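Checklist before submission:
- one chain only
- standard amino acids only
- sequence pasted in full

Submission:
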Amino acid sequence: MTLKLYFSPGACSFVPHALLEMSGAEFEPSMVKLHKGEQNSDDYKAINPRGQVPVLVSKGQAITQILAIVLHLDQVFPEMGFLPTEPLARAQALSTLAWMNNTVHPTFTHIFMPQKFSDLPEVQASLKPYNIQLFRGMLGELQALVDKAASQGQAWLSGERFGPLDAYSLTLTRWGTIAGIAPEEHPTLWAFVQKVAAEPAVARVIERERLQLNMGKPA
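Returned file contents:
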């Protein structure tokens, strides 16, 4: 199978990037430099007219959106157990993944790119602090999920196998440091993220994307 992943360093594309590396399958990672506007080029728009990452090209067909890509990878690599197979556990994992993608992620976008939501400078200025507080609370919810998984003896957020929830937790927590939310505010979440980052496949992706986990400024 020919697989190609279009990703941008530090973006949510880290999730399928980590899953592909974890699978051990051959794939072609193709970097899209968002800060240089490469997502708006004619060549990239021919792949994804929305100009977003990630895009997974599988058997010559482009798949966009995290949820669709994760479901595809889960079916292509069933031996990896990226998502639980038991119906209720699977639904709960997908519910958490959807929350990460459609609630937590957009909240950070309001912090990082407020210009997407208003062209008024005063509105942009108010969006950032308001959404930082929202994002802080969401990281608290994520830490509660980590604590719950640990209390149930689970190695990872959705069970005994590494999956998209774990990769996304690293991405969201890293974004929190960009927003000025110190890792010390959520110590068990931060410890969990260190565990995720220490996985050999994840460490390779971090190196390929040249990521620094804590982007906050020292006190």
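Reviewer check: The chain has two domains: 3-80, 87-209.
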